[in-house]
Amino acid sequence: MDEYVHVLSTTQKKEDAARIAKALVDRRLAGCVQILGPLESTYRWRGKVERAREWLLLIKSTRKAYPRLEKAIKEMHPYETPEILALPVVKGSKEYLSWLSGEVR
Q1: What are the residue boundaries of the structural domains of the chain, listed by start?
Q2: CB contact at 8 A, 50 and 43
Q3: What top-level class would CATH report for the domain 4-103?
Q4: Handedness of CA 50, 76, 56, 91 (dihedral sign)
Q5: What mean pLDDT comes out for the span 37-50?
Q6: For residue 57, what are the β-bridge partners?
Q7: I want to staple 30 with a disulfide (CB 3.0 to 4.6 A). Which of 1, 24, 65, 69 is the partner?
């Protein structure tokens, strides 16, 4: 089951999230990308506490595709240091994971 990952990333603009989502699916690096938001993020950046309105990308992919997916996000993302976190999928329906395996190559 550890061959599947759920990748998280955030953007400041919904348009950037949509552009990244479409590119990842078009390139078959993700089977599906959901965009949630807006949400409020509080974080420390360069010694200051910052707050920002952001959009969250929930990216469904595979461990095998992850290196190319990470590279693609870094190339497209406007942030200097974008959030890119891959979480392992512990369980999932056989049908959904079968579909995901067929979409992401």
Answers
A1: 4-103
A2: yes
A3: alpha beta
A4: negative
A5: 96
A6: 9, 35
A7: 24
CA distance 104 to 55: 23
What is the token pair recorded at 53?
A: 């309105």
* pLDDT tens profile 61-100: 999 999 999 999 999 999 999 999 999 999 999 999 988 8
